[in-house]
Write a structure and sequence with these properties.
single chain, 2 domains, 4 strands, elongated
């Protein structure tokens, strides 16, 4: 459990620790623009900014007037997108359509968690006894793994912490179920067959 926890934390923190420092963070729609203040080298104290993100503009140096124009261009780019694109990208808090693959991974994980509860509820209602079927643990493991990957992509420390501990519990329960089934099978194979009273 600790290994998975440390792996998740390392994956989340690694990009943050190696990302360059920035002085200005501007959001345009769902796009994040990071700028670092740099000295222009004149000794007069003039301020320029270097673009850190988005990656396609990284390394660009902008003076005060250029910065205003750069930000105005990013706003114009965002507003030029169709309203559906602005709505969906903003709703899911992603800046590109390719990120929807990761959103789908997260939705699969949430679907698995919903499915496990639904199955457990239906089976318990049918038997009139609270029952946790094996499928509950398989769906829990699927949901936990996919959400773990999704939260790592999102760089969400809280989600990684929650899923890394759950995955171990789900896997352990599946192992205990397999162990119990093997023990039952071995007991049935070693017990003598019951003597049936036949018809003479």
């Amino acid at each position: 459990m600790l290994l998975l926890l440390f792996l998740g934390m390392w994956l989340v923190l690694q990009p943050t620790l190696h990302r360059e420092a920035y002085d200005l963070d501007v959001r345009v729609g769902s796009m994040e623009i990071l700028l670092s203040r740099v000295d222009d080298g004149t000794g007069v104290g003039g301020t320029h900014y270097e673009v850190i993100a988005p990656p396609e503009h990284a390394g660009r140096r902008l003076g005060p007037e250029e910065l205003d124009a750069f930000l105005a261009d990013r706003i114009a780019e965002w507003e030029a997108r169709p309203w559906v694109a602005r709505l969906l990208l903003g709703f899911f808090n992603v800046s590109a359509w390719s990120s929807f693959v990761w959103v789908a991974v997260g939705l699969v994980g949430q679907g698995a968690f919903f499915g496990r509860m639904m199955i457990q509820w239906v089976i318990s209602e049918r038997s009139r006894v609270s029952t946790v079927p094996e499928l509950f643990w398989w769906l829990s493991l699927l949901g936990g793994l996919t959400l773990f990957v999704y939260f790592v992509w999102r760089k969400d420390v809280v989600g990684v912490l929650g899923q890394s501990t759950g995955i171990v519990v789900y896997a352990r329960n599946l192992r205990l179920i397999r162990k119990q089934l093997r023990a039952q099978t071995a007991r049935l194979e070693t017990e003598p067959a019951p003597i049936k009273e036949g018809i003479a």
